[in-house]
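User: I'm preparing a small set of examples for a lab meeting where we compare how different chains pack in three dimensions. I only have the primary sequence for this one, and I'd like the structure in token form so I can line it up with the others. Please keep the answer compact; I'll paste it straight into my notes.
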Amino acid sequence: MTQQYSIDTLLAQAGNRSDERTGAVSTPIYLSTAYGHHGIGESTGFDYTRTKNPTRSVLEDTVAKLENGDRGFAFASGMAAIQVLMNLFKGPDEWIVSSDVYGGTYRLLDFAYKNNNSVKPIYVNTASLAEIEAAITANTKAIFIETPSNPLMEECDVAEIAKLAKKHNLLMIVDNTFLTPVLSRPLDLGADIVIHSGTKYIAGHNDSLVGLIIAKGQELCDRVAYIQNGAGAVLSPFDSWLTVRGMKTLSLRMKRHQDNAKAIAEFLRQQPQIDSVLYPNKGGMLSFRLKDENWVNTFLKSIKLITFAESLGGTESFITYPATQTHMDIPEAERVARGITNTLLRFSVGLEDVEDIKADLLQAFTQLK
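Assistant: Understood. Below is the structure token output for the 369-residue chain.
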């Protein structure tokens, strides 16, 4: 009987002793693109690195265990992972998608649908089961949600949406980037596929571009594997190694991110310059709105410890301006109607001492007049 370890143990041991020949504790980086055969049909299990690489396999096997999936797949970016999922479908297939969705996902779905006869995105408030069910048509094939959503931090009931998906024979896809398997395991709640921008919390150090898919079910996993191999946008061995190394501290980091975010959310609610704070009381991500759009640029120029940058989930605190960064490709009227106003800022709360983060915010707020 296989020992069932806790997620903390799985993370701490990620990749350890994966090379039986040498007994290396840290998983090696296998840069070879080709692997020799002893004869016809006598493969070592590795043939060509696009199809399978030993370092990438360690990462893929690890994330499958973390999410309780059957197989994991690593890609060169989160968007490459979503592109692979789109290739499971074709027009006139439809996806029901969170209306508050990452701007890059919106851009890819919109472009592909308009130009390549790809899946049609139907945007609804996926926090509402009634709205999801009302949007289902004969062409609907999947429900794609982010929870919490990006950047409005709206939460969806994964278990109830999964029941709805099963009722209508739909695939359910969950972007678990913000919570990671440390805080949420959507497959355990009935989802079919989990995706991550592993660039963010999973790798955790702002030094590797990573996309991950974890799926359940032999047929579905085989289809994803076929497209991964055929399309070829796989993760490099070095980035696979960086991700395995980074995830070893994921549990520790997520606890500190969350503790800091809770404290900063409460702090921001007390500041007179803040109009609203959006935080689901879990994870390290929050958003807030300043009271005056004219303050935004001054505020971003005034922060010193916190970095004004377009990413999240690293050790450092980042603030992003969705209107001109992550969501700039959404037409302004549509973007504002969705709640992504020109006063909204997204905050990836880092691992710094929380009092230092507060002090930086305070000194920036003093510049707003």
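A couple of notes for your slides: Residues 231 and 277 are 41 Å apart (CA to CA). The two ends are 66 Å apart (CA to CA).

User: Perfect, thanks.
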